[in-house]
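Translate sequence into structure tokens.
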Amino acid sequence: MSPPSTAIARHPWPARLRRKQASEYLRERHGITLSAATLAKLAVVGGGPAFRKDGPFPLYELDILDAFAAARLGPLRTSTGDGRGPDR
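Result follows.
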């Protein structure tokens, strides 16, 4: 008998996600909290991840969500003085 696994079970994400799933994916995978309603607003005003449409339904692809999260989080830093702030 094998010992119990201590690994965290990973959610099996489909290739394309509806808004609610995309919100859950961003939170679980990247620690970014954006509600489905916020993703819907960003789809109207801009600034959110790119998506495709299947009829009336927006579909977000995993690699696009990953790129959006990386851009939103910015680069790794070693101190608060790294990078350029608004006063530089």
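Note: The chain has a mean pLDDT of 87.
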